[in-house]
Specification:
The complex is a heterodimer of chains A (608) and B (366).
Chain A: E1 7-14, H1 20-30, H2 48-53, E2 60-68, E3 71-79, H3 87-95, E4 99-105, H4 112-124, E5 127-133, H5 142-153, E6 161-162, H6 171-181, E7 194-203, E8 207-216, E9 219-220, E10 224-227, E11 232-235, E12 238-242, E13 246-249, E14 251-252, E15 257-261, E16 275-278, E17 298-304, H7 310-323, E18 328-334, E19 338-345, H8 348-361, E20 366-368, E21 375-379, E22 382-386, E23 400-413, H9 417-426, E24 430-438, E25 441-449, H10 450-454, H11 457-464, E26 470-481, E27 483-490, E28 493-494, E29 500-503, H12 504-521, E30 529-535, E31 538-545, H13 561-576, E32 579-581, E33 584-586, H14 588-600
Parallel strand pairs in A: 1-3, 1-4, 4-5, 5-6
Antiparallel strand pairs in A: 2-3, 7-8, 7-16, 8-15, 9-14, 10-11, 10-16, 12-13, 12-15, 17-19, 17-20, 18-19, 21-22, 21-23, 23-25, 23-26, 24-25, 27-28, 27-29, 27-30, 30-31, 32-33
Chain B: E1 2-9, E2 11-12, E3 24-25, H1 31-46, E4 53-61, H2 69-82, E5 84-95, H3 102-110, E6 115-121, H4 125-130, H5 137-149, E7 155-161, H6 168-181, E8 185-190, H7 198-204, H8 213-229, E9 233-236, E10 239-241, H9 248-255, E11 259-262, E12 267-270, E13 273-277, H10 281-289, E14 295-300, H11 303-314, E15 321-322, H12 328-337, E16 340-343, E17 346-349, H13 351-354, H14 357-364
Parallel strand pairs in B: 1-4, 1-11, 2-3, 4-5, 5-6, 6-7, 7-8
Antiparallel strand pairs in B: 8-10, 9-10, 12-13, 13-14, 15-17, 16-17
Helix pairs in contact in B: 1-2, 1-10, 2-3, 3-5, 6-8
Classes of the chains: A alpha+beta (608), B alpha/beta (366).
C-alpha cells in the first residue's frame, strides 16, 4: 500500500483531436512507465476501434512513478472516454480523481467538448490544471488560447501550462503541477472498504476485470467482497495495480487505483459507478454517491441480412453484453425484415460501435433500422414507453407524447453563427443562451429534441460551418411534442421498418422523401405498385412503380439453352433473396439503401 | 425418334458489336479444313445416331454463306450418307445479305437447301450502323429478290429491335419493309446486351444507353399487331410464320426433341444429356484431325432441371405446357392478370405474357 500523501489521481480531458492520447503517451515515456520497447501510439486505447477512430471508448488507467524533491510520487492517470454517449462513464472516471488536466489545442482554442468537460469537472469538484497543447505548431496562438482557457477556469493566464505533447515540451512542468496543485487523496485504511468502479472489461481468460479506485479502507486479495448495487458477493481472486500491465498486489489502500479479478463472467455484475465493499458485517453501509443504471437513449432494430443468422445474432449480442453493460436488447419481429432485436444504445457512437463489433468480431451481416429515441405515451395517469416507431399508437388514442430533449452546446466561429442558429431553429430548438468566448468565437446553448440530434445534426453543423463548429450535449429530460407516426405502405401493406415518428410539421416532407426514394429502389413488378405515406388513414404522399413489361430471354436455341437456363436460375436466386411485403418483392438492398438514406439525407425530419 | 442436325460455321466477314455467338472474323483461311472436319465429325456420330431419323439440318453461325456453296452442298450430301433422314427434310442456311447472289443461292437450292434465313436485322441505316452491321437496307432487298430468283419459297427475315436510336416509327418502317417482301417467316429479337461484347462494354461504361425495356415492349406489341394482321402466326416469343412455315428445326429445341450439333462450340441434346464441342475453331480442328471427338463438356439434367427447362421452353411457344405439369395455385394469379391463357388443358402465355415469360416461369417452377 502507498502512503496516500504521495498519491495523485488525475485525468486528462480534452475535445476530440486536441491531443489527449498523445499527451498520455508522452507522460508514460517521460516517467518510464512504459519501456521504449513496449511503447506504441495511443498506448491507453486498447480496442482496435479506438485506434482507428482516434477516440477513447473505454476508460483505462495507468500507474506512474515520478520523483520530486526526494519523494517518489505515485500518479494514477485515469483515462476517460471522449464522447458524449459516455457522459455517465466520464463522470465516474472523474469521480475517481482529485484533479483534472483540461487540455486545449493552441490553434483551435476552446471547443464545445471543452466546455462540457469543464462543466463535469466542476460538478465533480476537481482541481483543474489548464493546459494548452500543440504550442509548437505554426498555426498555434498559445497566448489567446491561454487567455480563453484561464478565463473559463477562473485562473490567471500564468497558471496555464504550455506543452507540446508531440515533442514533450513542457510535460515535465505539467507533472510538477500535478504533484503540487492536486490534493492527495483523503481516506482511512481502517475504515470499512469503499471502492468506486470506474470501468469494467471482459477478458476471455480471466472473466470480468474491474477497474476501481479505493476511497476508504483496504481491498485485500482473497477477501470476500460485495458489489453494493448488484448485491453480488464474490471472492477477490486478485487485486493489482496497472504499471502499466496488471501487477498483482496484496492490498490496495485509500487513494489507490487498480484492478480486481473475481472470476465473474458478466460485466453487468460489476457496473460502472457501483461501490465495492467487504462482505458481511465489516462492510460499508452507504455506497459512494453517484451510481445510476445505464440508460439507453437511442434505439434501432438489428436484423440479420440472412434470416438463418438469427440464432447467431442472438448469441453474439449475448456475448457482447458480457463486455458492454450498457447494451440492452429484446427480440422483435418485422414483417419486412423478419426476426431481429430492438437494441438500446447510449447514443449513436455506441450504436455504431456495437454494429461494427457484431460485424467484425462476430462476422455477421446486419440490417439496421434508422435509429429512434424513446417516446413516452401519456394517457391519463398511465405512461407507456415506446422504442419502436411502428408501436406508436394512432392519434386520438392518447393524451400527449413526450420525447427526450438535450441541452446542446455549440461553439462556432462568429461568422457562422447565423447558419448555426438557423440549423438549431430548423431542428425545433429553443435557445437557452448565447455568449461570445472572444470577438471571433461564440458559444450557444439550445434545448433540442434528441431525435433531431441523432438525425445527421452533427454532419449538418459541420457542413454549415466548414467543419469549424463543435457540438456537445447533455440529456435534459422529456418534453411533450406534437409527434405523429408516418407509415409507408407498399401496395396497401405497411412496411414496419419504414414507420417513423416525426414532428407533425415535418411529416409531409418525410413521407414524400421516403416515397420518392422507394420509387427509385423498388424494382418493377408485374403490376403497378402504389407507394404511399400515411398518417393514420390519411394518405400524405403517393408514387407508383409502373408495372414492368419486359422480362424475357429474346433468343433461346440449342446452344444457348444451358446458358439461358443458368441466367434464369440466377434470376431465381435473386428473387429468393427478396423480402416479400404483401405481394411486392423488395430486394434487401432496397431496404438497406432506403434506411440509410433516411439517416443521411438532410431533411431533418426523421426521429426514428 | 426424330432429331435435328445443327451445323455451326464460325466464320464472319466482320464481328458485330452486339453478337456473342461463337464467331470469328479473319479465320476464313481455315474454312477448307473446317469443312473436312465437319464431315469427319458427322461420320464419328453416324453409328450412335443410326436409330434416329433426322428431319432438319440447320447451318448457323457465324455466317455459313462465307463458305463456298459447293462446300455446303457437299456437306449436305455427306450428312445424307451418314444419317437417316425423313424426307423431305427442312434444310436451312443462314445467309448474310452481302455474301449471297442469284448464282450462289441457285447452287444451294439445286444442292437441296430448301430454306433460307436472311440476317436483315433492320431496314433503317442508322439502326444497322448502331448494330455495326456492314450491309445496307438495299442489300437485303437485293438478296431477298435473289433468293426468290434462285427458287427459294421458304425464306425467313431476321430482325433486331431496340437498338440505340431506333424509334417506334423506324421499327414500324422496318416491319412494313419486311412485310412488303412477303417472307414466309419473320424472327424479331429484342436486342439483348451481352456483357462480353463490345456493345456490352460500351453500355457498362456508360458510352451507350442500354435498351429501354418499355420502348422494346412497345416495339414487341407493334410487331405482334402488324405481323398478326398480315397473317403470320406468333408461334414462339420471337418467331412468326405463315401457316405451315414454322421452322421445324427450331421447334425441335423448344419441344425438346434430340439434336446433334456439329462444329466448333455446337451443342447436342439427347436422352436428358446435353454436351458441347470446344469453342475455338483451332481446337475443334486439332481434335478432329487427330481423330478424337471435340467434346468440350456435358451435363446430365436432374429431374428439377428437366422440369424447369420443359416449362421454360414450352411456355415460349404457342403450344405452351400441359396444365397438369404446373401447380394450379401458382398459375392462377397469372391467368387473372391476363399473362396466361388456358386452352384445351394447356397453359399458354398471352402476347403480353410472352414478353414477361421469365417472371411467369420463375413463379411456376421451384
Amino acid at each position: 500500500m502507498t502512503d496516500p500523501s504521495l498519491i495523485r489521481n488525475f485525468c486528462i480531458v480534452a475535445h476530440i483531436d486536441h491531443g489527449k492520447s498523445t499527451l498520455a503517451d508522452r507522460v508514460l515515456e517521460l516517467t518510464h512507465a512504459v519501456s521504449a520497447r513496449e511503447m506504441r501510439e495511443q498506448f491507453l486505447d486498447r480496442m482496435d476501434l479506438e485506434r482507428e477512430r482516434g477516440i477513447t471508448i473505454k476508460a483505462a488507467a495507468v500507474r506512474i512513478q515520478h520523483e520530486s524533491a526526494g519523494n517518489t510520487y505515485v500518479l494514477n492517470l485515469i483515462d476517460t472516454p471522449g464522447h458524449v454517449d459516455f457522459t455517465y462513464e466520464v463522470s465516474r472516471s472523474l469521480a475517481a480523481c482529485e484533479g483534472a488536466v483540461l487540455l486545449v489545442d493552441a490553434a483551435q482554442g476552446i471547443e464545445a467538448q471543452t466546455l462540457a468537460n469543464y462543466h463535469l469537472i466542476q460538478e465533480a469538484g476537481l482541481t483543474v490544471i489548464p493546459v494548452v497543447n500543440k504550442v509548437d505548431l505554426p498555426a498555434a496562438d498559445p497566448d489567446t488560447a491561454s487567455k480563453e482557457l484561464a478565463e473559463l477556469v477562473g485562473q490567471s493566464p500564468e497558471d496555464v501550462i504550455r506543452v507540446s505533447a508531440k515533442t514533450g515540451l513542457g510535460v515535465e512542468d505539467l507533472l510538477m503541477a500535478i504533484i503540487e496543485r492536486i490534493q492527495p487523496p483523503a481516506g482511512d485504511a481502517h475504515d470499512p472498504l469503499r471502492a468506486l468502479i470506474f470501468d469494467s472489461a471482459y477478458d476471455a481468460y480471466r472473466g470480468v476485470i474491474t477497474y476501481l479506485r479505493v476511497f476508504d479502507g483496504t481491498l485485500r486479495t482473497r477477501s470476500k467482497i460485495r458489489f453494493m448495487a448488484t448485491r453480488t458477493e464474490v471472492e477477490c481472486e486478485e487485486a493489482g495495480i496497472l504499471a502499466p500491465g496488471p501487477t498483482p498486489v496484496d492490498a490496495l489502500g485509500p487513494g489507490e487505483v487498480g484492478y480486481l479479478v473475481t472470476g465473474m463472467k458478466d460485466v453487468r455484475q460489476a457496473k460502472v459507478g457501483d461501490t465495492i465493499t467487504v462482505a458481511g458485517k465489516p462492510g460499508a453501509r452507504e455506497p459512494l454517491a453517484g451510481y445510476r443504471e445505464p440508460k439507453p437513449m437511442v434505439w434501432s432494430g438489428l436484423y440479420p441480412a440472412e434470416g438463418g443468422d438469427y440464432p447467431a445474432l442472438r448469441e453474439s449480442l449475448e456475448r457482447l453484453r458480457l463486455s458492454d453493460a450498457a447494451l440492452v436488447f429484446e427480440p422483435e419481429s418485422s414483417m419486412a425484415l423478419g426476426f431481429g432485436f430492438r437494441c438500446g444504445f447510449l447514443g449513436l457512437l455506441h450504436m455504431d460501435i456495437v454494429k461494427e463489433r457484431l460485424e467484425r468480431e462476430f462476422d455477421l451481416e446486419l440490417i439496421a433500422t434508422a435509429p429512434n429515441v424513446e417516446f413516452r405515451i401519456v394517457k391519463g395517469d398511465v405512461v407507456t414507453t415506446v422504442h419502436n416507431p411502428s408501436e406508436m399508437p394512432q392519434p386520438g388514442t392518447f393524451d400527449t407524447v413526450e420525447e427526450p430533449y438535450v441541452l446542446a452546446t455549440v461553439v462556432t466561429p462568429s461568422e457562422y453563427l447565423g447558419p448555426v442558429l438557423d440549423l438549431c431553429q430548423a431542428r425545433r430548438g429553443s435557445m437557452v443562451d448565447m455568449k461570445y468566448l472572444s470577438p471571433e468565437r461564440a458559444e450557444v446553448h439550445y434545448l433540442l429534441p434528441l431525435a433531431e440530434i441523432i438525425f445527421d445534426f452533427f454532419d449538418q453543423l459541420k457542413s454549415r460551418t466548414r467543419g469549424y463548429a463543435s457540438l456537445d450535449y447533455e440529456h435534459w429530460g422529456y418534453e411533450p411534442s406534437n409527434l405523429v407516426r408516418v407509415d409507408i405502405l407498399l401496395h396497401g401493406e405497411p412496411v414496419d421498418a419504414f414507420s417513423a415518428v416525426v414532428h407533425k410539421e415535418k411529416a409531409y416532407q418525410y413521407g414524400k422523401q421516403m416515397v420518392e426514394r422507394l420509387r427509385e429502389l423498388i424494382p418493377r413488378q408485374l403490376y403497378d405498385v402504389a407507394i404511399q405515406a400515411t398518417i393514420g388513414s390519411r394518405i400524405i404522399s403517393r408514387e407508383t412503380v409502373k408495372a414492368k413489361r419486359k422480362d424475357v430471354l429474346a433468343k433461346c436455341y440449342g446452344g444457348d439453352i444451358t446458358r439461358k437456363r443458368k441466367l434464369l436460375e440466377k434470376q431465381k436466386e435473386g428473387k429468393a433473396r427478396m423480402r416479400r411485403v404483401g405481394r411486392v418483392d423488395v430486394p434487401q438492398e432496397a431496404f438497406i439503401a432506403a434506411l440509410r438514406v433516411d439517416q443521411r439525407s438532410g431533411s431533418g425530419s426523421s426521429s426514428r | 425418334m426424330t432429331a435435328g442436325l445443327y451445323v455451326h460455321v464460325p466464320f464472319c466477314l466482320t464481328r458485330c458489336g452486339y453478337c456473342d455467338f461463337n464467331a470469328y472474323a479473319g479465320l476464313g483461311h481455315l474454312s477448307n479444313r473446317y469443312v473436312r472436319a465437319l464431315a469427319r465429325e458427322a461420320e464419328m456420330h453416324a453409328a450412335e445416331w443410326a436409330d434416329v431419323r433426322f428431319v432438319s439440318v440447320f447451318f448457323g453461325g457465324g455466317t455459313p454463306t462465307t463458305l463456298d456453296p459447293r462446300e455446303l452442298v457437299d456437306l449436305v450430301d455427306r450428312f445424307r450418307g451418314a444419317f437417316g433422314f425423313d424426307e423431305p427434310a427442312e434444310i436451312t442456311v443462314e445467309a448474310n445479305p452481302d455474301t449471297v447472289d442469284v448464282e450462289s443461292l441457285t447452287a444451294l437450292r439445286r444442292g437441296g437447301v430448301n430454306r433460307l434465313s436472311m440476317g436483315a436485322q433492320s431496314f433503317d441505316p442508322a439502326v444497322l450502323a448502331a448494330l455495326e452491321r456492314v450491309h445496307q437496307p438495299s442489300s437485303v432487298r437485293r438478296a431477298f429478290a435473289a433468293s426468290r430468283a434462285a427458287g427459294f419459297d421458304d425464306v425467313n427475315v431476321d430482325l433486331i429491335f431496340g437498338a440505340n436510336g431506333e424509334s417506334l416509327d423506324s421499327w414500324r418502317r422496318t416491319l412494313e419493309e419486311t412485310l412488303a417482301l412477303q417472307p414466309e417467316h419473320v424472327s424479331a429479337y429484342a436486342l439483348t446486351i451481352e456483357p462480353a461484347t463490345p456493345l456490352g462494354r460500351a453500355v457498362d461504361a456508360g458510352r451507350t444507353p442500354p435498351p429501354d425495356p418499355d420502348a422494346q415492349a412497345d416495339m414487341f406489341e407493334l410487331a405482334c399487331d402488324l405481323l398478326g394482321a398480315a397473317g403470320y402466326g406468333h408461334y414462339e416469343v420471337s418467331n412468326w410464320a405463315l401457316p405451315g412455315r414454322e421452322c421445324r428445326h427450331n421447334l425441335g429445341y423448344w419441344e425438346r426433341r434430340p439434336y446433334l450439333g456439329l462444329g466448333a462450340g455446337a451443342h447436342s441434346w439427347r436422352d436428358g444429356r446435353r454436351w458441347w464441342n470446344v469453342r475455338p475453331p483451332e481446337q475443334y480442328l486439332a481434335a478432329l484431325e487427330s481423330a478424337t471427338k471435340p467434346t468440350g463438356g456435358d451435363e446430365v439434367l436432374d429431374d428439377d432441371t428437366l422440369r424447369l427447362e420443359s416449362v421454360f421452353l414450352g411456355l415460349r411457344t404457342a403450344a405452351g405446357v400441359s396444365a397438369t405439369d404446373v401447380d394450379a395455385g401458382r398459375a392462377a394469379p397469372f391467368l387473372e392478370e391476363g399473362l396466361l391463357d388456358e386452352r384445351d388443358g394447356r397453359l399458354v402465355l398471352t402476347e403480353r405474357g410472352l414478353f414477361l415469360a421469365n417472371d411467369v416461369v420463375l413463379a411456376l417452377t421451384d
